[in-house]
From TrEMBL:
Species assigned in the record: Mycena chlorophos
Lineage: Eukaryota, Fungi, Dikarya, Basidiomycota, Agaricomycotina
UniProt family annotation: Belongs to the SPT4 family.
Record's keyword annotation contains Nucleus: yes
Limits of the Spt4/RpoE2 zinc finger domain: 18-95
Entry protein name: Transcription elongation factor SPT4
TM stretches of this protein: none
Superkingdom of origin organism: Eukaryota
Amino acid sequence: MDAPAAHIPTATKGSRQLRACLLCSIVQQPIDFRKYGCPNCEEILQMKSSGDQVAQCTTSYFDGIIAVIDPENSWVSKWQRTSKYVRGMYAARVKGRIPEHIEAELEARGIKYRPRDQTDMD
Ligand SMILES: [Zn+2]
């Protein structure tokens, strides 16, 4: 039985083209965000087939790629049906914020958005 997995970018060369989701910080190639959306946040971000959404909800400004995360402590899991992140690569730090209307959408669901740039950590 296969666990759900993200479309893991295979090329390390040209990694500048990779983008990280501003909500869950998963790292994928832009074309995969566009084709399949975010494997964790698609329900809210709806990036599939929308270049605009991909541009707004992902960023190429991130650093530190980690392959493993702790799904149990994920705040995203609170609104995910699966309660787990998919396997994949994640950015340790992501610069930027999701658009305001997405933040409002999260709030409407009773979720407090936490930017992934760790500015709220101290
Ligand atoms: Zn995401």
